């Protein structure tokens, strides 16, 4: 195998999640002409990412690259059945009996069909139809009477069955170019795909210790060195994952490098035995959208009324305009804050309005309890908003610098920090730079792995 270069790398993802998107974008921004491959897919991958299963389906656009996803009321149903929906999901009814449930692709408010579950007489799911970004049903999952997955079939654009994956036995049957092939598991199936495309001769960069790691181990070894790299993007638990330990012990056939992409995990991994020459730290080349302009406006996104110390913050910082947004209705408790001149509340906010608030505000307060909505801390970070949080509510620990995180009982420290930043643009600028540094913001020169 030739030495790794900018045209000799395959990015192998298990899922095309946020970390996968950031890694691919970072390589692209660093000038790489790179092949990106994803094992799991829900039909909406970008054009520059190839799905292993869909590779064998041929042109899944049906010959129409301009085709669009199905709108929720465009799915085919028997005559007289009714389709209804809201901004979260849809349903299919035969009079008063529910026959189907419609699940949307994100963002859900566009109501684009991703999956339709079909129900039996008892309301238990019996099958799921999977739709892609061209509005074509490319897959069907079959369930048993206990609503457990049994198998999934993949179809070409003409509806012909090409692949069947058995979830009970784990095996896969492939009908491709007139030949039927059997694989005992996903690893063997992906290895076949990699060999078929000559990717075994390239360096494999992966961000998962499951199937991508198994594939790396199963491919023929590099001729003169270990060329594959694990990009670790997850949080670390108490114990080192067993598969990662194989790399640290030098027992992985092709991989002897671990690039850690968040600070907390790096601090943990860099201290383990064997890490010295294997573990390194590298972030992403983030697509920042603007500079922080120092405007005295703060954004809070929540779908719960429990927003930590909201009243205290509003009262202590009359010079700051607080924008509180929710995708749902707001409780009377939360709406009561409208009595303050420096607070604006947005129940049932539209995404266009929310996007405008991300562009308008220069501070983000990660102080809502329960789950995070709209990847808010990530969006705030990309907008170069200065993030502040309580430790009890923080959702974006990888983006929020430690000096901007406080215990809720010490909320006055957060107030003091915010006062300090809004009154001194130099300190604010330094705080934004510190935030970027903590999140391991990288530059193209750092993406050199030769």
UniProtKB/TrEMBL annotation:
An example Gene Ontology biological process: regulation of protein stability
HAMAP family linked to this entry: GtfB
Family to which the UniProt record says this protein belongs: Belongs to the GtfB family.
Keyword terms, alphabetized: Cell membrane, Membrane
Role according to the record: Required for polymorphic O-glycosylation of the serine-rich repeat protein in this bacteria. A stabilizing protein that is part of the accessory SecA2/SecY2 system specifically required to export serine-rich repeat cell wall proteins usually encoded upstream in the same operon. The GtfA-GtfB complex adds GlcNAc from UDP-GlcNAc to the substrate protein, attaching the first sugar residue. Stabilizes the glycosylation activity of GtfA. Has no N-acetylglucosaminyl transferase activity on its own.
Subcellular location(s) per record: Cell membrane
Record-given protein name: UDP-N-acetylglucosamine--peptide N-acetylglucosaminyltransferase stabilizing protein GtfB
Domain of life: Bacteria
NCBIfam families (UniProt xref): accessory Sec system glycosylation chaperone GtfB
InterPro entries: GtfB
Gene Ontology cellular-component terms listed: plasma membrane; protein N-acetylglucosaminyltransferase complex
Pathway recorded for this protein: Protein modification; protein glycosylation
Subunit structure: Forms a heterotetramer with 2 subunits each of GtfA and GtfB. Part of the accessory SecA2/SecY2 protein translocation apparatus.
Organism of provenance: Pseudobutyrivibrio ruminis
Main location group: membrane
Membrane association type: Peripheral membrane protein
């Amino acid at each position: 195998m030739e030495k790794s270069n900018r045209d000799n790398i395959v990015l192998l993802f298990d899922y095309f999640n946020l970390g996968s998107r950031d890694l691919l974008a970072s390589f692209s921004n660093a000038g790489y002409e790179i092949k990106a491959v994803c094992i799991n897919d829900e039909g909406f991958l970008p054009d520059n990412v190839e799905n292993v299963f869909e590779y064998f389906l041929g042109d899944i656009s049906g010959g129409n690259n301009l085709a669009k996803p199905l709108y929720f009321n465009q799915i085919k149903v028997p005559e007289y059945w009714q389709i209804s929906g809201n901004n979260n999901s849809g349903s299919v009814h035969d009079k008063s009996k529910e026959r189907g449930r419609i699940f949307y692709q994100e963002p859900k408010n566009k109501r684009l069909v991703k999956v339709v579950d079909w129900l039996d007489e008892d309301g238990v799911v019996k099958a799921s139809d999977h739709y892609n970004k061209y509005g074509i049903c490319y897959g069907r999952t079959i369930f048993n009477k206990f609503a457990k997955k049994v198998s999934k079939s993949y179809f070409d654009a003409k509806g012909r069955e090409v692949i069947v994956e058995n979830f009970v036995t784990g095996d896969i049957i492939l009908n491709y170019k007139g030949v039927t092939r059997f694989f005992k598991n996903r690893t063997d199936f992906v290895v076949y795909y990699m060999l078929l495309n000559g990717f075994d001769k390239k360096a494999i960069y992966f961000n998962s210790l499951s199937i991508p790691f198994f594939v790396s181990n199963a491919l023929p070894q590099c001729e003169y060195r270990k060329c594959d790299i694990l990009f670790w993007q997850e949080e670390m638990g108490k114990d080192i994952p067993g598969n990662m330990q194989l790399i640290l012990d030098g027992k992985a056939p092709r991989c002897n490098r671990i690039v850690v992409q968040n600070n907390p995990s790096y601090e943990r991994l860099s201290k383990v035995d064997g890490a010295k020459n294997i573990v390194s730290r590298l972030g992403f080349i983030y697509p920042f959208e603007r500079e922080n302009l120092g405007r005295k406006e703060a954004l809070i996104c929540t779908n719960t009324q429990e927003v930590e110390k909201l009243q205290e913050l509003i009262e202590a910082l009359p010079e700051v305009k607080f924008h509180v947004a929710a995708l749902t209705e707001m409780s009377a408790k939360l709406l009561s804050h409208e009595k303050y001149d420096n607070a604006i509340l947005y129940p049932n906010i539209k995404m266009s309005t929310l996007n405008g608030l991300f562009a308008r505000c220069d501070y983000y307060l990660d102080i809502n309890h329960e789950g995070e909505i709209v990847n808010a801390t990530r969006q705030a970070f990309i907008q170069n908003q200065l993030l502040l949080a309580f430790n009890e509510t923080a959702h974006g620990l990888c983006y929020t610098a430690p000096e901007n995180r406080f215990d809720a009982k010490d909320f006055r420290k957060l107030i003091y920090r915010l006062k300090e930043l809004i009154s001194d643009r130099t300190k604010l600028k330094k705080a934004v730079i510190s935030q970027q540094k903590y999140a391991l913001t990288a530059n193209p020169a750092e993406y050199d792995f030769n």
